[in-house]
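Quick question about two entries, pasted in order.
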Amino acid sequence: MFAVFAALGANILVAISKFVGYALSGSAAMLNESIHSVVDCGNQILLLFGDRRSKQKSSNLHQFGEARAKYFFSMIVAMFLFFGGGVIGVMEAYDKLVHPAHTVENTGIVIAILIAGMLIEGSSLRIAFKEIAELNTGKLPIFRFLHESRHSEILVIFAEDFCAIIGLLLALLGTVLTLVTGNPMFDAISGMLIGILLMGAAIFLTREFYSLIVGERVTDSDLTKILAAFERSDIERVINVKTVHLGPTEILIAAKIDLVNELVIPDYDVVNQIEAEIRKNLADKKCYIYIEIDEFDENYQR
């Protein structure tokens, strides 16, 4: 969550500077960037609230706790803030586009604010990369890691910071072209592109969070560690293993195994040893493990 705090601090500073820039210039791109930064601040506040809810202890109603609260609040961030902010930005830019008489003033100040914003957002993105490097123990390519990661908050922060840099570049390009040509249409177009960028990020994030809320299995690397615990001489066959992420670091594991006919130790000791091995292999996760002993029947209908 350090990346969330870092992004919140950065976005508060950037939002204030952008609104000052908009007030001085009347730039559509700067207005969209201001909306973008306000959206980002809302993102971090909701992520922090979701993190707090996810740490609630188990209750009679939520017997596995509320770890998936992170996914729920991440979905709200994607749909209402990212998409909503993008729609508002496009509407404002469209209004400027159909009324080309609008002017962009104090472009020098606008350019300075945009460059400062890029520096601040760049430092936030650097922190996000550092957090990703710590989580990416399998050394996967970054976009594959983001797709497979069960840490919704790091996905939001990366998408947010990445879009912020792209949005600032678009705003800078639109402002420079407006300054050079004297045509404010470039400012309006860059503002519209920023809004479309936000909506595109919202669609991408929503698809990822939908999958997490419905329930995703563990990653391939974690599944390999789980299956390794069943490689024992006293197990005749692993009939089935099912897993689901209850949260970024909480896993439910259900397995059905067929033991050999003549055991050296009691069957419950076998189960206990398997559970201990799984928890050892997944020391960074909280595991809920349920193992059933059965006889394999190839004609069994589930």
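Here is the second entry:
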Amino acid sequence: MYLTHKMKQIRYLHIEFDEEIEGREIPAFRGGIIQKAGQENVLFHNHLNGNKYLYSYPLIQYKTLRRRPVIICLDEAVDEIHHFFEQTDWSFKIGERLLDMKIRDLRLKRFNLQVWQTQFHYFIRNWLALNSRNYNTFMKLEGVAEQIEFLEKILKGNILSFAKGIDWTIDKPLECTITHYQEPRKVLFKRTPLMAFSVEFQTNVFLPDHIGLGKGASHGFGTVMLLKKKN
């Protein structure tokens, strides 16, 4: 495995709580964390004053892993999470249930991000690849091969957006190939029905486990998981 260009190091914090929630409850989980941390702390929700939105890669992401609620914090968000932890009471309600929000697992890591001369294999779950502009283009494509090629370009763009969001310039050719494709399923995102893809892919860029790519990354969509190489 050989390095082909300069490295970008980021801090990565994985916080898993000792509760169980459904995937559809992620917005409520997110809302509870934001309320505890304070609306004035923008990285928790990416909303500016009024109806303005901070259009950048979300550095705080909310998701479920094995039914456990999880927060992923990247770079400066690792410092910002103290706005939640400094509260004396972490519990909040989802519907009629009170979540105690005790920490089950907490991992702070540093990752070296770089372009390699080898391939990493990933699975991306419930990836919202299509927006209103490219949905019609996708639906007009003939055959799965054309659709996969179209999605590969979008996935490459999502990886570049992640890099830009953490202030990392990828100055070497980025490779991205979908290796296993499943038919998309319908999901609701902000009460809008969208197509969610779950695919395996390989790329020459190392991606930290469980980060999100694409639309809804802060709400648990497009979660990336590193696949171990088969013998």
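Reply: The first strand starts at residue 8 and ends at 17. The radius of gyration is 18 Å. Hope that helps.
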